[in-house]
């Protein structure tokens, strides 16, 4: 198991791991930054994904801004509003979830929600935790409330529970149910896969259009008592539960 502080001492670490641990982006996105020439080490652009650095001695920059590892780990649960993008940097200048939380620490979202999808979104500068939560092998459960443009039929619901074919493989929801008193127009659906537009595509396979999508829960955390656009810090117990979920030791 990897150490909790991956950039301690004079140990050489991969550039993507350092950027992730510094709260810049996830490791996957860090690789994209390196490949696109946006990362410099000691004033020189690096493009090799396996580049290693000494965090105590080397100067790392992303888009011309210096990178330092935050001494305080931050864990935020946001009830994401509509019209906010889940990227730290938007080329079109649209409001991002980073603008919504507006904290001093450099945090980034764990995974993505579509611009018009609302609900639970985690933001943190704990790169190792974020990386593991997004990794498919941990099968982190996400629960959505989908508002649809016509009532779903019982036979369609039965078929959906058995799984639908997407991208050449069968996708089976972890749970799916009609919400009470919704006349079949609101469906709860739990999934662990991370395919792009997954929930919307599941319903589209039945020629049903999702008009509104809200992620009610992520990894057991929900947005209870949070209005759209509001956020809070996770409790120590919640952070501990997340770390156990992805097989990380206590912080």
Protein architecture, described:
The protein is of the alpha+beta class and 251 residues long. The chain has 3 domains: 13-66, Structural Genomics Hypothetical 15.5 Kd Protein In mrcA-pckA Intergenic Region, Chain A (Roll), CATH 3.10.290.10; 75-135 and 225-245, Alpha-Beta Plaits, CATH 3.30.70.580; 141-218, Alpha-Beta Plaits. Helix content is 22%, strand content 26%. The chain contains 7 helices and 17 strands. The protein has helices spanning 15-21, 27-35, 97-101, 127-134, 154-162, 198-204, 236-245, and strands spanning 13-14, 39-41, 44-45, 52-53, 60-62, 65-66, 75-80, 108-109, 118-124, 142-148, 164-166, 169-171, 175-178, 186-191, 210-218, 221-222, 231-233. Strands 7, 8, 9, 10, 13, 14, 15, 16 and 17 form a 9-stranded mixed beta sheet that branches. Strands 3-2-5-6 form a 4-stranded antiparallel beta sheet, with no helix packed on it. A hairpin with an 8-residue loop joins β8 and β9. α1 crosses α2. The radius of gyration is 20 Å and the shape is elongated. It starts with 12 loop residues before the first strand and ends in a 6-residue tail after the last helix.
Q: Which features would summarize this protein structure in a list?
A:
251 residues, alpha+beta, Structural Genomics Hypothetical 15.5 Kd Protein In mrcA-pckA Intergenic Region, Chain A, Alpha-Beta Plaits, 26% strand
Proper CATH architecture of the largest domain? 2-Layer Sandwich
CATH topology annotation of the largest domain: Alpha-Beta Plaits
Report helical residue fraction.
10-25%
The overall pLDDT average reads: 90
Distance between the terminal alpha carbons, to the nearest Å?
Answer: 14 Å
What's the SSE pattern? EHHEEEEEEHEEHEHEEEEHEEEH
The DSSP helix count reads 7
Major beta sheet summary: 9 strands, mixed
The H-level CATH homologous superfamily of the largest domain, spelled out, is Pseudouridine synthase I, catalytic domain, N-terminal subdomain
Tally of discrete structural domains: 3
Number of strands: 17
Percent in strands? 25-35%
Q: C-alpha Rg, in Å?
A: 20 Å
CATH class of the largest domain: Alpha Beta
Shape type: elongated
């Amino acid at each position: 198991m990897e150490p909790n502080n991956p950039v301690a001492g004079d140990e050489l670490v991969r550039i993507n791991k350092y950027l992730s641990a510094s709260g810049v982006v996830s490791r996957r996105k860090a690789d994209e930054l390196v490949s696109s020439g946006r990362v410099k080490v000691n004033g020189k652009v690096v493009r090799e994904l396996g580049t290693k650095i000494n965090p105590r001695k080397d100067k790392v920059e992303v888009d011309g801004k210096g990178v330092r590892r935050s001494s305080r780990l931050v864990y935020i649960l946001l009830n994401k509003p509509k019209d906010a993008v889940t990227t730290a940097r938007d080329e079109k200048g649209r409001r991002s979830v980073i603008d919504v939380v507006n904290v001093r620490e450099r945090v980034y979202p764990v995974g993505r929600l579509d611009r018009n999808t609302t609900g639970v979104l985690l933001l943190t500068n704990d790169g190792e935790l974020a990386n593991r939560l997004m990794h498919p092998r941990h099968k982190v459960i996400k629960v959505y409330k989908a508002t649809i443009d016509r009532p779903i039929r019982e036979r369609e619901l039965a078929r959906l529970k058995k799984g639908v074919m997407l991208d050449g493989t069968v996708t089976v929801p972890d749970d799916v149910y009609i919400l009470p008193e919704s006349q079949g127009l609101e469906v709860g659906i739990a999934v662990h896969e991370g395919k792009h537009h997954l929930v919307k595509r599941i319903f589209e396979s039945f020629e049903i259009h999702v008009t509104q999508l809200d992620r009610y829960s992520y990894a057991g955390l929900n947005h209870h008592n949070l209005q759209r656009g509001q956020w809070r810090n996770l409790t120590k117990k919640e952070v501990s539960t997340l770390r156990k979920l992805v097989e990380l030791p206590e912080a």
